Amino acid sequence: MLKKNKDLTKVMLRENEIPQRFLNLNFYLNKYLGKLPPPPLHPGTKKPVGPEDLAPLFPMELIKQEVSMEEYVEIPKAVREIYKLYRPSPLIRARRLEKALKTSARIYYKYEGVSPAGSHKLNTSLVQAYYSQQEGVKRLVTETGAGQWGSALAMACRFFGLQCLVYMVRISYEQKPYRRVVMELFEAKVIPSPSKQTKMGRKFLKANPKTHGSLGMAIAEAIEEAVKDKETKYSLGSVLNHVLLHQTVIGLEVQKQFKLIGDEPDIVIGCCGGGSNFSGLAFPLMVDKLAGKKPRRRFIGVEPKACSSMCKGKYGYDFGDTGKQTPLLKMESLGSDFVPSPIHAGGLRYHGIAPMLAFLHQEKLIEARCYGQVEVFKAAEVFAQTEGIIVAPESAHAVKAAIDEARRCRARKGKVIVFNLSGHGLLDLQGYEDFLQGKLK
Amino acid sequence: MLKKNKDLTKVMLRENEIPQRFLNLNFYLNKYLGKLPPPPLHPGTKKPVGPEDLAPLFPMELIKQEVSMEEYVEIPKAVREIYKLYRPSPLIRARRLEKALKTSARIYYKYEGVSPAGSHKLNTSLVQAYYSQQEGVKRLVTETGAGQWGSALAMACRFFGLQCLVYMVRISYEQKPYRRVVMELFEAKVIPSPSKQTKMGRKFLKANPKTHGSLGMAIAEAIEEAVKDKETKYSLGSVLNHVLLHQTVIGLEVQKQFKLIGDEPDIVIGCCGGGSNFSGLAFPLMVDKLAGKKPRRRFIGVEPKACSSMCKGKYGYDFGDTGKQTPLLKMESLGSDFVPSPIHAGGLRYHGIAPMLAFLHQEKLIEARCYGQVEVFKAAEVFAQTEGIIVAPESAHAVKAAIDEARRCRARKGKVIVFNLSGHGLLDLQGYEDFLQGKLK
To answer: Which of A159, A275, A286, B436 has the fewest CB within 10 Å, making it most exposed?
Structure first.
């Protein structure tokens, strides 16, 4: 049986194997490392923020999850019911890619693009919409870069009967018009950011009327909108502990899938904007490293050169938004005013990285790597031509790193590489068009 | 176990349950009905065409399959290897849709959009590319409407090392520019049809310089190109027996999936352009009807009002292309010169229907139904908002029929409805945009 399973190309789990609980890395950091990422600080008092500081923004259950020290957090039944539409997602052995690379590595990818929203983002948007609805919230407001997160939240809001307002980074709004159509089909309202709808937006536009926008600006507008109205809460697609927590459903499934085929990953790879898809894959697989059972297992977070907070940022307290309204987060950051160039991987255009990931990077538990846009699309082209899937420009960063690692394995004993294919690129084809025509910078 | 399986939302099979053989309906028509669809005729002699007539167009193995009377046809191992990327595809219970409709029906959809090409078309393009490569063909040339077929053939050609040339119906080329990008990413050459590249194209353009094009015209150009060059063959995405045969992998899986959950379909639905996705789902499920075991099982083929060959066409011999180069096919046809209006469901803009389906329709083994574009998009909107999936405009026709059938079940004992969700609509969002803005006709 074991040998036979090892020959699988697509490792599927059954519906009843969808995890029932998320895994909370803080529990293990405390247990094995004896320390935790520094807490968010109130920008006025410089003291750790309490639940009451966050209550205007988030439902209480998510605030509790944000600071939870429990080992596991239960996944609501209503959320698992919708997970069944696409979870467990497949773990696929990239056999044709391996062959094309002439590598001795075994390359696996976890394919989150099977989600009806097209990416891993639905894993958390469903939880956030569910708890918002449970606590009587009427509307969620958020920002989106490439639109993956906005689509996922719009869909989740529609499922749970909430209104949804999305500030979409202007350059993405223009590059990816069909993302807006997707959100509107789910009855969300979409506004290009910076906009004239908010004080913050007007300020950003005054400073630079032609700005491409950034996630930091869009967050600022969304937060301003959320605090104005008691029945509206804010929803974030990455960075915060509770968001990363919800994504661990990915890695928990991957663990079961590797067990099924009797294999184990040596190298774990994901792209990093705020860091949620990478964390979701990595955290469950990191427990064994923390426990000393897999000390040589490597974790690689991949960023764009145009916006590389882990590779080039400074570790310290900074604001999460360009409006300087959020609590101070201890992260590796390029500065909350940083406006990255308009690369196609709009989801990676965030000035900081999740405090949890910055901490792990500082602790040398994860490695950071960054690539330029053209080499990333080149890797995506190789992947499409061998595995058939057109990946999102964000996910293409993980593909590039996986290919590089696999190439290093050519001569040596094969390593096992797993990367998170966080979403498909079917709404990002302008980027591919520019790449094919040699117009990418 | 049985009860538990009946509660499944997403019915998955294991990789080793991918069918090893296609099912040939002709075997069963001969066995149970004692008659067969009339054969294609040579337009000159009016006699049945022989293998030598088709040899300039198709590889010999596919010609053999076209006339095979065997019960099963083996699926090549190399093809099954690639099927593993997305097959077995899920059968999903549309629980939230059922709830929204307040129906007592159980609605299932077979989701072929999980294919990396985005639709069922890859099921046959892989087989066609494989046998072409085996027989020394260097290049395949084809036509495409909405681009689903062109994408699938481009991908298959890239996997098997063949060149690929696609004539894309001009209106779709303009409506869906990103489909071209997908094909080009797989190194196919894409030409809007009618074009100045072929005699036929020049003739069509001369007759109407502003023509939207049609599948019939694009087929004519592709065939002209194929017969010019010995190392080039023509490839068709629907209509012919061997194409329908390859799609039976869908229905064979569905049979296993229903067995797993201990349920059985009463009503089987698919959209029909040439008829391949409907046939793929329906044929395996029709065997029990032919055998008298399921005499009341219904089969419904759904067409657009704008191009409804089964509902409005004439049953008789007609050409498969507007250039009148193909053998005469006995089908229900609107006439090989018919140019349908530019609806978004470009894949359904074919003047005829597969001879096998026309025959089944005439024998009253299947029912035909047709819908207008707006009601179809309305159904797609309901489906997206309940099930999350944005379906292709073609597949939306099947959604509409499934919803109508389910509504009729409200008061009565629940029927089991299964429809083929043949592809996603992520490259058809202009249609949704037009629908949302009330611009659709």
So the answer is: B436
